[in-house]
Amino acid sequence: MLQLSIFLENAKGRLAEVISLLAECKVNLRALSLADTKDYGVLRIIVDNPEETAVKLRERKVVVSLTPVWVLKVPDRTGGLAEVLNQLVQQDVVVEYMYAFVEKENEQALVVLRVQDKAIMEKAMQTLNLPVK
Amino acid sequence: MDRTEEQWLEGLRETVDKVLPIRHYQESYGAIGIKRAEDIKSLKDFQRLPLTTKEDLRKNYPFGLFAEPMENIVRLHASSGTTGKPTVVGYTRQDITLWAKIVANELKRVGVTKKDVVQIAYGYGLFTGGMGLHYGCEELGAIVVPISGGNTARQLMLMRDFGSTVLACTPSYALYLAESLEESQISRDELKLKIGIFGAEPWTEGMREEIEARLGIKAFDIYGLSEIMGPGVALECPAHQGLHIDEHFYPEILDEEGNPLPDGELGELVITSIEKEGFPVLRYRTKDLTTLHYGTCSCGHVGWSMDRVSARVDDMLIIRGVNVFPSQVEEAILLEGFEPHYLLVVYRVGNLDQLEVQVEVSEATFFDEVRELEGRQDRLKKRIEDALGISVRIRLVEPKSIPRSEGKAVRVIDKRNKEG
Ligand SMILES: [Zn+2]
């Protein structure tokens, strides 16, 4: 799945501006996470039509890139996420970052994973056969 | 044309002769015992003559240093003069003709012909850029489009509709046009543009490569100052062997104390005009830093050449006692793969000067991973710090957040004095 990554200058109100811009473009935000540094932030979002949304944002002078990520279903029980992660670690997958969200329709917990090495992750997914979104 | 010392002296003496009736020169030259042009027996004598500065022009505002009666003057130009009075220059009919011929010759050398359509996007008016190129192109017989600066959408439309083949403007505006072209409905294939004549502000080799790649043209650096004549004092060689100085200008390079420096050493360019009537200049301090070379070029030019002006003395910032030029920062930015849209902000925290360099992030320099982005930022920081010798703070900003200029770009905001 492709995630949209957006560069945000930490100017006052810029985050709200970009979120409003997404609303204007009628984009349904399924998940969102913000990585923050002193000067700028990287807003990461999961939307229904990432490519189309990227085009719209670029037209509005927003710096955006499409990043491949994995969206995995997390078993609905204590330690469910730990289970998934431990399995991946055993397959040598290195996670760069992750964030979780819950799908409205069925209250399914999901986790977005960005990994260091795509090939290792693909192999791990084949071996483990983890449920994906 | 190759000239001997005596031939140069002949021209220089003529200029001295022309200015000696002016009180300013009478007084300053009289003080060192030069009463007549013949008192200058060698180039060494010539180099004893006091330098002329922008301040001298201001003191004699507006017409005090003109060498012809006002009835012989047919045009005035003036510098923008951001502080105090502008500097005013006057041209006789003969000066205008000479200027046009000089510019026409130079343009011919880089391949501009009477078949070309030249879009002059330099400002027209008191600034010499627009009119200087204009008369030169007409002299050459090219088709002039005197569009002046600004109104970028219209610039691109007419560039397409008129089939402009040559663009003349500041390098920063050329880059802005390139950027606007990429976003416009006009494709590069619809344009006939092939040559760019860019000047009026210092720029780097990296900037040239950027403009050439994005506009798909050959870019040449044109040099000039209104106080000397305007654009055309020198134009870059087609083989990129520096800028060839026209033979109507005698150049010198001086160190900070005003001592002559040998060929190839970096210093301030000082120029004396030859055959100019209305406003001859003698040993005028340009405040531009460059190096000089004398010789025969592979393109056929014989005489003086100068390197691209790397910096203006006036653009120099002194930060924590260190000399800093915006062009050094520009070079580092381009080398690290960022786009040359940047701003230097100097401010003070306590008693310590701080330099913040703002650089725009683009699709090419943006990474989803903060670590990666910070890595790029660190590499840029290190490269700038290595070049300047002082620590800097890098701030990545969003595209188009640094204002674009239609004339000379604003590269520096110095907040130190205002904050007290
Ligand atoms: Zn040459």
Task: Provide structural commentary.
The complex is a heterodimer of chains A (133) and B (420). Chain A has four helices and seven strands. Chain A has 133 residues and is of the alpha+beta class. Chain A has two domains: 2-68, 2-Layer Sandwich (VC0802-like); 70-128, ACT domain (Alpha-Beta Plaits). In chain A, a hairpin with a 6-residue loop joins strand 6 (95-102) and strand 7. The mean pLDDT of chain A is 91. With 420 residues, chain B is an alpha/beta fold. Chain B has three domains: 1-48, no CATH class; 91-312, 3-Layer(aba) Sandwich (Rossmann fold), CATH 3.40.50.12780; 316-419, GMP Synthetase, Chain A, domain 3 (2-Layer Sandwich). Chain B is 31% helix and 26% strand. Chain B has helices at residues 5-19, 23-30, 43-46, 54-59, 93-109, 128-140, 152-161, 171-183, 205-215, 326-335, 370-388, 416-419; strands at residues 73-78, 88-92, 117-120, 143-145, 166-169, 195-199, 218-225, 230-236, 243-245, 249-254, 267-273, 284-290, 292-296, 302-306, 311-312, 317-319, 322-324, 342-349, 352-360, 393-397, 412-414. In chain B, the strands form five sheets. In chain B, strands 4-3-5-6-7-8-9-14-13 form a nine-stranded mixed β-sheet. In chain B, strand 13 and strand 14 (302-306) form a beta hairpin. In chain B, helix 5 packs across helix 6 (128-140) and helix 7 (152-161) packs across helix 8 (171-183). The radius of gyration of chain B is 22 Å and the shape is globular. The mean pLDDT of chain B is 94. The A-B interface holds A 3, 5, 7-9, 14, 35, 37, 39-40, 42, 44, 58, 61-65, 67, 96-97, 114 and B 361-363, 366-370, 373-374, 395-401. The complex binds zinc ion.
